[in-house]
Amino acid sequence: MNKNLRLEFTKGILKENPVLRLVLGTCPTLAITTAASNAIGMGIAATIVLVCSNAVISLTRKLIPDKVRIPAYITIIAGFVSIVQLLVKAFAPAIDQTLGIYLPLIVVNCIILGRAEMFASKNTLLPSILDGLGMGTGFTAALLCMGIIREFFGNGTFFSIPITSGFIPPVIIFILPPGGFFVFGILIAISNLISKKESIKDINCVNCPVKNSCAVIPKKENAK
After folding, report:
1. 120-137, pLDDT tens digit by residue?
2. pLDDT of 140-182, one tens digit each?
3. Which of 43, 98, 107, 179 could form a disulfide with 173 if both were Cys (CB 3.0 to 4.6 A apart)?
4. Would you list the DSSP string of the chain?
């Protein structure tokens, strides 16, 4: 895999994470992350829809008239969501029951429609597939982090396995909406901090004429 293709995949994991950096798809993120297993189910379902819809939209981008591109994208996405929903109902009914209305609502998930409009409609097949896979991986990772934290502190379990039973009483607020917003904010702050450090590493200030007065680079590096 060359550097450009690798970048298309990895950008969605942290640098352009759809949940923690772009703040998209927050409704299912906050609603279904009361347990880690819910997060895995939603993340896999959304990733499958992302990859498949990106692939089809990339292949048909020159055939879809510009005036009807959004309805066409939604129709393509809805088709794959229906397929995924039927598969989940057939092979994982417990996950289907847990996710409830949020599974069919993947159709209007702004992450999927956003990647279709911003990337798949402008790029070839392989980069579009990798973009969908990377964004889906980042989405799943963010959901999983939230699910693990909220389940552990709110129920004292890890993937429904008791961990703190009899030692630490569960903090119920973590599985309630306020706890979801709290964990969400903490993860966004951590993601921003990591991304800021990575962006500073990528900056080359050796030959910059204003490096001594730059506000981006720490003072210690300016003095070098």
Report:
1. 999 999 999 999 999 999
2. 999 999 999 999 999 989 988 888 776 778 889 999 999 999 9
3. 179
4. --HHHHHHHHTTTTTT-TTTTS---HHHHHHHTTSHHHHHHHHHHHHHHHHHHHHHHHHTTTTS-GGGHHHHHHHHHHHHHHHHHHHHHHH-HHHHHHHGGGTGGGGG-HHHHHHHHHTGGGS-HHHHHHHHHHHHHHHHHHHHHHHHHHHHHHHSEETTEESSTTTS---GGGGSHHHHHHHHHHHHHHHHHHHHHHHHHT---TT-TTGGG-SSS-HHHHT-
